[in-house]
Amino acid sequence: MNFLFQNKRIAGTLAVVPANERTYLEEMRNFKAPEARSLKLKEVMGFDRRRIVDGDVCVSDLAASGFKHIFDQGWLQPDEIDALILCTQTPDYISPPTSSIIQGRLGLRQDMVCLDINQACAGFVVGLIQAFMHLEQPSIRKVALVNADVLSRKASPQDRNIWPIIGDACAITLLERSDSDRPIHASVKNDGARAHVLQIPAGGLRLPSSPATAVLEDVGDNNLRAKDHFYMDGSVVFNFVQTEVPPLILSLLETAQVSIDQVDYFLTHQPNRFMLQKLADKLGVPHARMPNNVVERFGNSSGATIPINLALNLADRARGPEGFLACIAGFGGGLTWAAMLLHLSRLRFCSIIDYPSP
Fold this sequence. Notes:
Elements: E1 2-5, E2 8-18, E3 21-23, H1 24-30, H2 35-45, E4 49-51, H3 59-73, E5 83-87, H4 98-106, E6 113-117, H5 123-134, E7 142-149, E8 169-177, E9 184-190, E10 198-199, E11 217-218, E12 224-225, E13 231-232, H6 234-256, E14 265-268, H7 273-283, H8 294-298, H9 305-313, H10 315-319, E15 324-332, E16 336-344, E17 349-355
Parallel strand pairs: 2-17, 5-6, 5-7, 14-15
Antiparallel strand pairs: 1-9, 2-8, 3-4, 7-8, 9-16, 10-13, 11-12, 15-16
């Protein structure tokens, strides 16, 4: 599914990451993993540090803290928000929508749209598409897109394939109308037949959480996980990314009549360094133009990794008048994979803060 937008832009992005930092080697020592193997994985996969929430911190807590910072800095006024879109796979509640919780906590006006989207690692691109479609409406001038997950709370601390690499984060991105007529091209694909390879089996109505779904099971190689916990088939996901994402990006560029060399940076979701280096090689993109250092500092934080990537690596260029042409791509649960080609410049804010604030 292809999309085309004009006269719209990203006006700013703020990432909120928990102050609680864990190191990969410390986590692997808790599993009594051989040090040499852990060091090799750290080098090849880029696993080093991650940020996770403490206690019962939820998505709305991270989001409310981020919005307060934005308001305090004067980057946006509360009554300027016409729509609030949240992409998450770890909502505060099954019902009501967490976007409504955030709206209520912030005391935003009632004459606005609040929308939850159940999306994971492709959620930034999917959310941008939804935000730009909302901006087609005359009454909507500014949209706040929130990508946030606290997936560590759904990961088994006794599953070394998942626990040491999952990160928690929130990103708030402001979208608004623009005088620029530069086109924004986007594309989205889905394959629900493979939805089971990234899944939290229990907790919905198909399999409600119960004492039985909380029982830890040996899932192989001395890893313990319950049906309440997040599950990922790593090898299938790796093959999915290498097989499906390059054709999507190349087709997007062909539609936009833009060559690989004309794209300044490829900002993708970041599960691990090895996967991104192989993806860059498949596309013929130099590794320097596809930054891969988010996962080593913050862990795999789902839909927030692309905004974190932007704030961590390209904030000065994104705030500058010239800016750059970016191809952003997310891929994960659904299975969903999506990409967007757009120009980024003159962002009013592009930064990362800790939660809670020092």
